[in-house]
Amino acid sequence: MISLDLARQLKNAGVTWSPAPGDTFMIPHRDLDDQVFAVSDMVVEVLDLPTGRVLAFNGTTEWALDSIMQRDVVWLPREDQLRSMLGGGFVSLQAVPGGFVVEVASGSRTERHVDVDAEGAYARALLSVLARPQPLT
Question: Closest Cα partner for 102 from 17, 36, 24, 6?
């Protein structure tokens, strides 16, 4: 999972998000900075009852935060989503000692972006691609 800092950089760089089940996000500045939330159609709660552990299917969970505007959260894109955003510029993902390298095409050369995990390397590569000057059409 990418860091909140990298996710914020992607958001600030203009990466847009259409929330879908399985997506994760964080809610900064609400004393929830360490919590990761997931978009889901249904909540499943683990309950320890005297008769044993139960998986309880609930439509909603009672909580003080009933809703929040999408603009107030930060999406944490997954590895496959980041790779998809790189599109045809994606060249390769390689495991190296201490982390991962994502290579992307940049004109006639290849850029390498390194991080301790694959998602972070993809995010760094995407930030680099988004920062490139766009050709005039």
Answer: 6
Q: How do the pLDDT tens digits run along the chain, 137 residues long?
A: 999 999 999 999 999 999 999 999 999 988 887 899 999 887 777 889 899 998 887 765 555 556 788 999 999 999 999 999 999 999 999 999 999 999 999 888 999 999 999 999 999 999 999 998 766 55
109-115 and 99-106 as β-strands: parallel, antiparallel, unpaired? Answer: antiparallel
Rounded to an integer, what distance in angstroms lies between the CA atom of residue 11 and that of residue 3?
12
Side-chain half-sphere CA neighbours of 57 within 13 A? 2
- Give the start-to-end residue ranges of the domains of the chain: 4-131
Characterize the bridge pairing of strands 32-38 and 90-96: unpaired
